[in-house]
Every structure is written in structure tokens, then in C-alpha cells.
Amino acid sequence: MIKRGKGIAISYYGTGYGNGYPDVSNTKIKLNKEGKVEIFVGGTEVGQGAKTVFLQIAAETLNTSIDDIILFSEDTSIMPDAGTAAASRQTYNTGNAIKKACEELSIKLKLIAKEILNLNTTEGLIVSNSSIYLSFYEEKKVSFLDIAKYLGENLLIIESNFIAQTVEMDLETGQGAPYWPYTFSACEVEVEVNTLTGVVNILSAKFAQDTGKAVNPNMIEGQMDGGFCMGLGFSLFEDLNIINGRIKNDKLSKYLIPTSMDTVDIEKIIIEDPEFTGPYGAKGIGEPVTIPVAPAILNAIYDAINVRITDLPATPDKIVMAIKKDSKAEDKNGKID
Amino acid sequence: MINLNINVNNKDFEISIEEDKRLIDLLRDDLKLTGVKEGCSEGECGACSVILDGKLVNSCLIMAFQINNSKILTIEGLGQGDDLNYIQKAFIEVGAVQCGYCTPGMILAAKAILDANQNPSRDEIREGISGNLCRCTGYEKIVDAVELAGRYLNGSEIYR
Amino acid sequence: MDLKYIGNSINRVDAYSKVTGKALYPQDLYYENMAFGKTLRSEHPFAKIKIDTSEAELIPGVLKIFTHKDIPNNEHGVLHKDQQIFCDKIVRRIGDPIAFVVAESEKICEVAIKKIKVEYDILEPIFDPIEAMKDDSIKIHGNSNILYHYKLRRGDALKALEDSYFVANNTYRTHSVDQAFLQPEAGIGYVDDDNKVTVVVATQYPHYDREEIAYCLNIPMESVRVLNTNVGGAFGGREDITLQVHLALAAKTLNRVVKCVYSREESFLAHSKRHAIIMKYSTGVDKDGFLTAIKAEIIGDTGAYASWGDNVMRKAGVHATGPYEVKNVMIDSYAVYTNNPYAGAMRGFGATQVAVAYEQQMDIIASELKISPVEIRLKNILRVGSYTATGQLLNNSVPLEQCLKSISE
Lengths: 337, 160, 409
Fold this sequence. Notes:
The complex is a heterotrimer. Helix content of chain B is 33%, strand content 16%. Chain B is an alpha+beta fold. Chain C is α+β, with helices and mostly antiparallel strands. Chain C has helices at residues 15-19, 54-57, 106-115, 129-133, 157-162, 206-217, 244-254, 264-270, 309-318, 351-369, 373-380, 400-408; strands at 34-41, 47-52, 62-66, 75-76, 83-84, 90-91, 97-103, 117-122, 146-154, 166-174, 186-191, 197-201, 224-228, 257-261, 276-285, 291-303, 328-337. A 7-stranded mixed β-sheet of chain C has the order 3-7-1-14-11-12-13, with helices on both faces. In chain C, strands 9-17-16-15-10 form a 5-stranded mixed β-sheet. In chain C, strand 11 (186-191) and strand 12 (197-201) form a beta hairpin.
């Protein structure tokens, strides 16, 4: 028999290494001789979109096109340490570091512009599209290239960092402020369960993700899709099958990850509620997007067949066995109708 | 050693190879077509997909000696420079790329789908790419990209 | 705030190189006169070992077989240096690295690996973390298999459970899974023109890799350079050292370009796993549906090595209540050594596993109280002004109600 069910789950996730451990992102910014801004930062692009996010944050802060900003994030001999690409921390931590550095660069650039333009003060100066001008008298304008030429060999270099706030917890009570910020998620899944074979199909899914502020909504949707898929594999079939310390499923023909046929189009809802301490309000979402998926699926399975799977993964054999066990229990209690 | 005459990305090659060489190794090690990726070596992940005489195949499962007088297309033969193929363009625009390791194979799988049918349904696309694993995207934007590429191809959306 | 670039779905800056096949991953790099490296790994989960490489070294084309004798500092690890670059006396899991063969070709490496003799003196392994926690269990490292214990205490959970209208008592188990990123580990080692030991690798944290390479080779950090290529997915699986130090050591010793590419099977052996966790929960509620207390014992199998075990199980413990206001909380979260594959970082980092427990508990309670899953959650969720179980004030950006309502309406 095919039975349908719906389940929901919500979750939260605290960003960063946590528990007082120094959580630092360093960055170095340089105005090169061609008048382009170079950003050196050790944050890794693992596919999550770090490079794009870093450039968007820099472009916003410098009010300058992404094409005029060059990012170097591959070579430890030239880039400062920006911590690991993990703990959903790159957008928040390194994003903040880049924003800070760009703000400092803007201030420095304005001071130099004041000098070149022979002004009394930097008040009223605006940074825009690789140049600086006086907002109420645009004739007073100097480009980044002019500034670079003016500086000659004395390249303008800004080094900055961002250190996330984290408070170590008490050893006996666990009280403290280990992580910041927290990011919230909610997921609803509809499944159908074949009670004979135990096979679970996902029929539809909704996912709402708190982003603080979405830096790149399309890339966030991509994270939500991927996080859902990973949560689905975790809950239904991925299994290393470790027996006596040996990974039995050590090939992709045995360790099954979701294919395009296992998942569905997901209704994705991006929630914005800017975080005071985030760069433009942004929070990390790389991990949060997978957390509520497994419990939502398990709650949906229960809704469909009235059997709770407490032992992952919820493979067909386990579901069939749980149904059989449940019906026996019900027989004894005389509850079966 | 065996002599092979093959055409790869519209270029003819005459190559001498060892008998136990796989097609993927010929393409990567000898021709340096490193857009052909190796992910599992058993035909499960599709990262090594190429189009062999018009058909999508896993180049890790084919021995090089089997392909004498064949025509092979890899990602490098699709679109380069400013002249991107409509599928590549769609993948960029839709955001169907994350870590990028499955991308070359996925794009060739998309080409195989669209070569056969310019107006595939989402289900047909999902089936068509089901031999290509992606761990990052959850596939939805890849399906979107193949749909968009189909619209470019059949003219229902203007290809800029 | 009027924003121009933030909030704008611009195309990824790395998309062009990835759709054209130009994006390079370490396995895509080829150099003239390049040597290859391959790792010999333990076949047994717990054993004393003796290694004899003499026969293998005689095979033509073998350049050197590296073992513990060749590495100045053999220990590494992201939190505790409890792993060895090359096991010297003891292996603690299947897949532990024992030797790194460097030869003129990959094929010669494979032949040579088979000729290395490893004598295993088998020890009694432990695979069950609950067994491993016992005082009289065989110890895998040091005096205790309990690597880490996080305690969370707020209010009086035991009394509050006793006074509760209903308590859901259940045990949940999540299993060990793999990041299964599509690009298997690969790397290149060489000494560059500035005499820097250079490792080209796909990593989540190049500066950490640099630090470990410098430490293990006992050279200054400035003499090491890590070049991060495109990374073919990571999800936590590229945080620990795998082939970085092997390549650096071989390149420095031989002054050759050395390449190493893991097969999918070796990739499964080499990197960390998601912690399998046993979660024993008691969740109490009053008759109006407000949570009264949560008590949980959370036991994470960290396998043979710590990796991020302390931090993963801490994150599991801190997140164990779920996003709810609970006045009485008693959590004990443990990371426990066993002879299983080592567990470390994977997307969600402990917070993924506890959600499986706390969110099923909420549904069980809702059904007992005959209220809807949405209603039970709305009664208890964190909002601006709420305190978390660790006593942290959530003073802004807590749009959980909005998240919940937008999926359920």
C-alpha cells in the first residue's frame, strides 16, 4: 500500500569554532599600480561561492564594480590566514574582515583624494566606480588610477582582521556564549511510503532559511538545494556500512549518494532579518541548510505509516521491519481495526 | 603498443597507446584534456563523461583500443574563449555550478539530452542526467539550466 | 540601506572556468619528469606493526619508500596531535598510513606497495563506543577512551522531568556517513624556485596545512607554500591532513615533483567521517504544551583519532535542546575513541545529528498532547529576547517563527 505523510522540522546553528577559541579572519587590500583594488585573503572557495561573496562585499563597500577588484585566495605565500572554510563562518567572518578593510581603504583614499584635489576636508567625498568625487561639485574628482600614479612606489596597503565574539563555557555548567550568530531553518517534506517494499519517495519539499541578509540569493538557493539533497541521502540511504572497523561501502556503486531521480524541486523561501554584527547583516548558511532535512523526512514517514524510525538510515528493509513489528504490537493490544 | 586514429574535438590524432590504457587516461594523460574528470573509476559518477560517436559514455569504462576511428567530444571541444556553447551559458546564468567537478560531464550529459530532444520535460532531464552525480547542487539548478539551454536551442528564448 | 551589489544574484566569478573545463584541480596538473606517490595503509583496525621495506626498495624505478623513520615530527591533528603521518608501532584503524612509496610511475608504486612487508600483531579492537567508555575497556590512546565530555546544566532537569505532565523517553541513533565530495584527494609536491617546499592541493584551510607541513618537516613556516587549486567539494572532509605532508616530505627529500592521486576507495579511507551518535533523550512538557525539561546523553563515536571530535560533540551538546526555550536542561555529550574510521567535520558538525532526536521528540509530544506539530513548536521556539540553554541572550535576528510559518502556511 502507498501511504502519504507530511513532516516538519526546525533547527538552529551557531556559527564559528566556538567556546572562546580565537576565530580570526585576516585580509590584506592593496591599490595596485593600475588603480585596481587587490584583495588577498585565505578564505577557500570550496564550491560554496566564497570568492563571489567576498567580491560582492568588497564591491558594495567600495561602491565599485566587481570587475575592478581582483581577488587572490590561493597562495599562502601572499595571502593572510582567514581561517578554515568551515563552521559556516566565511561569509560572516571573512566577509566582515573584507568589509572592514575596504572601509579603511576608503578612508585612506579619501585622505589622499583630499590632498590631490586640494580640499580642506574629506567631508562630502564619495567613493564610486573606482573614483572619488565631491558629491556636490563633481568637477572635484580623482580616479583610483590617478591616486595610484600619485602614490607611485608607495603602494597603499591595508591590513585588517575580524575576530568573532565567542565566550568560553563554564566547565561544570556549560553556561556561556559559545557561538555567534545563530542561524535558523525550517523544512517541510511530503513523502510517500510503500508499506510492502519500504521505499520512501519525496513528493514535495519546502525550505525556509534565515540568511540575515542574502548576499547572493541565487547562490543561497543553490546551497538550500544541495543541503536538502545531502540531508535526504543521510536520512534514507547513505551508509558506509562499517563492520569490524572496515568500510564495506567504499565505492560510489555501494555508497549511494542521491541522484537527480531521488530528489525533487524544492520550494525555497529566503528569510531576511539582518544580524547587527554581520557584514550588511549577513549570516552563514552552508551548514544550516542541511540540518532540519532528516528529522522532517522522519516525521513525514511517521505521519505516513505511524511508525517511528529512530535508527538511521531509514532504509526500506528497516521500514518494512518496523511496520511488521508495529503491527505485531498492535495485534497484542487488539488495536488493529 | 596499438596505433589509433581518432578524432577528438574535431582534430585528428594518430596515437600509439598501451593496450591496457583506458580512454580517460588517453584523454587526460596524453592529450591533456583535463576537463574530463575522474571521480569513481567504475562508471557511477559520470564526471568522466564524453560524447563518443554521438553517444554519452563514461570514459573510465572504455579501453582506448576500442575507439579506433571514432569521434570524441570533450568539454574542451564545446565552447571556448568568448564563444561559449548555449549549454555552458545556461549553466552560468542559472547558477548550476558549485564546486565544478561534475560540471564538464554534466554539460555533456545535457548536450546528449538536447541533441535528442530540444524540448525535454523536467522529468526527462532528471532521467537524462541521472548517471551524473553532483554532491553540491541538489540538481535543481542543473535541471533549470538544461531547460534554459533547450529554450535557447529551440529559439523560444533569445540567446544573447 | 540601499545596496547595489549585496542582494544581487550575480553570476559566480568562477563559473566560466568551470563550464569550460579550464578549472584545474590538483589531479589535472602534469609536470615534466614527475614522480608518483602511493600510500600503504593498515589492513587491520588495531595492531602492533613491524615494517620491512627492503625488498620493495630494490624494485627498479622506486625512488624511496618513506616511513616513520624519515619524518622529523610524526604527529599531527587539528585539535590533538594524536595521528601519525606514518604509523610507527601501532595502527588504530583500517586505513592508517604506514608508508609512502615514491617511484617513476604509478604502476611501479603499485608493485612496490605489495612488496612491503608489514607484520601485524593483532590487538583486541573496540568498535562500540559504549563499551569503549567503560573503565575496564582496552585503551586506544592514553588512560581513557573518553576524549571529551561536555556538560550542560541549567535549572533542575531531573526534578522538572518528575513534575512534567508527559515525558517522551527515546533513544536515537545516527550512523557514520561520508562527505563524498566528487573530487578525490590529489596533490603535487615540489620545491619552488625560491626553495620553498610547495604543496598544490585542494584544501579547506591552506594555512593550517602549511603549519602542519612546517611542523612535521621541522622547517620554518616561511619555507612552506600551499597552493590551493579549485576544490571539488569539501563539506568538512578536507580539514584534516591526508596527503599534504607525504608530498612535502617526498618533494623536499628527493627534490622532484611528486604527484599523488587517491582512488575513490582510498578517499573513503583517508578522510574523516560524520560522527555516528547515540542520543538518549527525555523531553518533558506541561499540559499546555510548554517544554519543562530536556535531559540527554549523547555519545559520539569519534573513531580512532580525535580530529574535531571535541568540537563536534560540544556543538552537538550546545544544540541538543533544539531551537527552544527550556528552563531545565541536563546534557552530557561525549566524544569516544574506538577503532572505527575516524570521525571529524561534516556539514552541521554535531548539530545535524541532534536535530534527528530533538525534532522527533517534539512530534511525539505534540501527538501525545493532541496538538499540531506547528503548534507545539510555536509555543516553545526561540525569539528575540530568548535565552539559549547555555544562557546566551538572542538580542536580534531570530526569524525562526517566520521560517516556521512560511513553510507551514
